[in-house]
């Protein structure tokens, strides 16, 4: 069995590790915001290799938006690495701006997580710094506002700063024999609820139950989008025939069992950023700057988006790691995660 803390990396992956190690120099003890996904798992592994097991703590945020399967998976990965893992309960569901579910929802969620880490975990474990698993591809996406919360809390992003993209993250994960090396992306459950429709524990529980049922039927990747009484099921294109054929009846029964009255199979397959990307626009020459198309939402909802946008600092500050109180223009949400 490969020991992920002693396995040798070679070529480009070895050079990438050297860059991460240099970035983490002087950052011990380090807290790693950890989900069990491949990005945060690779960051945790590289941090353990650079600093040692006694100088790194994995921190898992727990709330109704985290599926129980994901929580258990995170514990398995941490145990595989021999890493200390602490859980911190987050209360983003109590925040009106989070429940309102604008395109900046992830900002409020990450801000809550990093606030809880700062207020409890950092002192308890004497942390000198906190890092999270943003990679170089994430930097280029216009639909990831959680990154800006990281900036406000001075959270490090070693993978992105080392130029490590998603493909290289997976190559490193495979070289270190991490159990999550080929794990599909698993955004939080709230991402299944259309923007401007309230995020509630009941909806999150419905989505979790339905997606657990998909996995039980043998679908390794999938999303259940919550459209009120309708569940829109997204699966890899290669799984659509199986879902509409021999597994149609059990899939229908399983998703209905989660409380949905109707079940639709999306022929487009899995769509990352399905709800957020239609609401943002990247302007030529700007990387990335985005605005909410408020005209697509009812006027009251658009006004709410404007108010929430004023709470989010400018993208230039996010790129320079200098917090600012400058607010975006009305109707605009700049995003980077």
Order of helices and strands: HEHEHEHHEHHHHHEEHHEHH
CATH superfamily of the domain at 11-175: HUPs
Secondary structure: number of strands: 7
C-alpha end-to-end distance: 35 Å
Principal-axis shape equals: globular
Q: Give the spatial strand order of the biggest sheet.
A: 3-2-1-4
Concise account of the structure shown:
This protein is of the alpha/beta class. It has helices spanning 11-24, 38-51, 68-81, 96-100, 105-125, 136-139, 146-152, 158-161, 166-175, 201-216, 240-244, 248-256, 299-309, 315-320, and strands at 30-33, 56-62, 84-89, 129-131, 223-227, 230-234, 262-265.
Describe this structure in words.
Helix 2 crosses helix 9, helix 5 packs parallel to helix 7 and helix 10 runs antiparallel to helix 12. This protein starts with 10 loop residues before the first helix and ends in a 17-residue tail after the last helix. It is α/β, with parallel strands linked by helices and 337 residues long. The strands form 2 sheets. The chain has a 4-stranded parallel beta sheet, sandwiched between helices. It is globular and about 55 Å long. Among the domains are: 165 residues, 3-Layer(aba) Sandwich (Rossmann fold), CATH 3.40.50; 70 residues, Alpha-Beta Plaits (2-Layer Sandwich), CATH 3.30.70. It has 14 helices and 7 strands. A hairpin with a 2-residue loop joins strand 5 and strand 6.
